[in-house]
Automatic annotation (TrEMBL):
Highest taxon above the source species: Eukaryota
Pfam families: Ribonuc_L-PSP
Lineage summary: Eukaryota, Fungi, Dikarya, Ascomycota, Pezizomycotina
Protein name: Enamine deaminase RidA
Transmembrane segments: none
Length: 147
């Protein structure tokens, strides 16, 4: 079995990341499966770089960015195996996140942890979501396999 190298991806449809990281890391792990790790996605508009002032708008944009990252590496929501959500001021009740998250995930319910934080990387940010997925790969880890 040949091990394929990990590769990083920064989808053009997602805002540019800071120079210290990539949005997505894909690690082929064998038998036509790849581990997809998506860095924390935020509510930052991919074209303008603007961060909306409302929590609900930031959640919607962050989830859209997760979807863009998944599509860029030929993965799907159903491939998600773990989610971490970071929320500033978690003590304030707001059902908009849950509603947006459920719409985004459909009937898929991977393990998810919600973490209340004092602040995120930029003072305007209120929400961030990290995702891990296992997806089938079109590039076989076995060079003798014509998948």
């Amino acid at each position: 079995m040949t091990t394929l190298p990990n590769y990083m991806v920064n989808p053009r449809q997602v805002h540019s990341p800071q120079p210290s990281y990539s949005h997505v890391c894909v690690a082929p792990i064998g038998d036509g499966v790849k581990l997809v790790t998506i860095a924390g996605q935020i509510g930052k508009h991919p074209e303008t770089g603007e961060i909306p002032p409302t929590f609900a708008a930031q959640v919607d944009l962050a989830l859209e960015n997760v979807g863009r990252c998944l599509r860029e590496v030929q993965a799907d929501i159903k491939d998600i195996v773990r989610v971490q959500q970071f929320i500033v001021n978690l003590s304030s009740p707001d059902s908009t996140r849950v509603q947006a998250y459920l719409r985004f995930m459909g009937d898929h319910r991977p393990p998810s942890t919600v973490i209340g934080v004092q602040a995120l990387a930029q003072k305007e940010l209120l929400y961030e979501i990290e995702v891990t997925a296992l997806a089938r790969t079109s590039i076989s880890a076995d060079p003798n396999n014509d998948e």
